[in-house]
């Protein structure tokens, strides 16, 4: 009778080790392919859609991978509504367990999402210039220039233009409130007098009462505070009621939609803006110029000539930030974990001189705004286009 030989114990152990090794390799391969999941809340409809739509279009320029890791974008519309932005953020954190969040397009939405970012200990890159206090409990970092930086530059320009008495005509929500507070301080420092303070809603289609009150004070100039195409309406109505003096706008108005909607009523308007709007005119030695030109070239190839906007560029700048911080975070943790989220934040607070299309960012634990004067260009609207009148005052 013949018996089948029984495998020796060493052979069985070798087979087991081989299977375990293959299993480990498989798990390592899966870990290496872990997606960096990003929740994006944008204002694709509603009064802020002229900000959100170019941001969505810019995301089409993103690569499939950053630092070798696959990127997964979960994009939701918040309809320019703060409560919807908060709902989106909660969905990102609780259901999607995202590694970071982008958005929203407007200040109120950013502020709403910021609370969720802190609760979920999830990094938020804001697309609107919401004020940030920094510190360990603040998980929100802004990509647009902070309002006080732009306000100081605009007040200095008014002094240069020999303006002394200014009427403020601005939105009655977060962005308008920030500008009112900042410009009050800038005006005081520059020796300007604010002779009228009138407010209107982003969804208003007329400002008859406010315009008449502004005109009654006989100011030297009017500062209009709004964003995107909605910033054109008050300027149009001021001119329809006889205003012929200078009008200044803010960086929130720096978009082709303002020119398209405002038409000839925008002629001569002065505003501070991000350098990306005048990328071709930046100094060849500027660290901002190659990034801004890269964005402008690629975006306008996609959407057509003269379609660039500051708002879309924020989505491109988010990519530039990730290209710096993701490789650093990957040295400490894998995507999809709390440790990776913390590592992303730590990297953002420690990396220096991150060149983006709007300037050069240097965040820290106590500074979540990141900008200096190299993020400001002073523009005038002339014959339907933005013309540079003052370039960034600092380069690195």
UniProtKB/TrEMBL annotation:
Entries under Gene3D superfamilies matching the protein: 3.40.50.2300
Entry keywords, A to Z: Signal
SUPFAM superfamilies from the UniProt entry: Periplasmic binding protein-like I
Signal peptide: 1-34
The keyword Glycosyltransferase is assigned to this record: no
Domain of life: Bacteria
Residue span, Leucine-binding protein domain: 35-352
CDD domains referenced in this protein's UniProt entry, alphabetically: PBP1_ABC_RPA1789-like (cd06333)
Classification via PANTHER family: BLR7848 PROTEIN, LEUCINE-SPECIFIC-BINDING PROTEIN
Annotated family: Belongs to the leucine-binding protein family.
Name the UniProt record assigns to this protein: ABC transporter substrate-binding protein
Origin species: Ideonella margarita
Lineage: Bacteria, Pseudomonadati, Pseudomonadota, Betaproteobacteria, Burkholderiales
